[in-house]
Structure to design on (104 residues):
């Protein structure tokens, strides 16, 4: 317990910044109008595309013979980046379907 308290005391500024960014992110996201949702999803997909490329580079440079932190982080970046891109495209496609004219 003493080690946990000393960790929080040592990194109190970083923990404070992370907590503030969480509250700020929740406030910003909750106030986004529906009209801006699709452009924001496109931006998130672009960022996730960069994460996927970075994950490929990290996994390519990681030592595959040994189980390393770089290999784990690269694989996680690939998985989560791909999930975000596929989910973003699915949501964007579903929203665009709502604006198409319905066939009679």
């Amino acid at each position: 317990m003493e080690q946990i308290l000393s960790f929080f005391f040592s990194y109190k500024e970083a923990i404070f910044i992370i907590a503030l960014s969480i509250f700020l992110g929740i406030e910003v996201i909750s106030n986004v109008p529906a009209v801006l949702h699709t452009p924001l999803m496109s931006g998130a997909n672009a960022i996730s595309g960069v994460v996927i490329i970075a994950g490929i580079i990290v996994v390519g440079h990681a030592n595959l013979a040994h189980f390393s932190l770089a290999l784990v982080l690269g694989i996680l970046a690939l998985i989560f980046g791909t999930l975000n891109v596929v989910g973003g495209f699915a949501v964007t496609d579903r929203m665009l379907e709502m604006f198409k004219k319905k066939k009679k």
Observations:
- Residues 1-31 form one domain.
- The radius of gyration is 20 Å.
- Helices lie at 2-10, 12-30, 37-61, 69-99.
- Residues 12 and 78 are 31 Å apart (CA to CA).
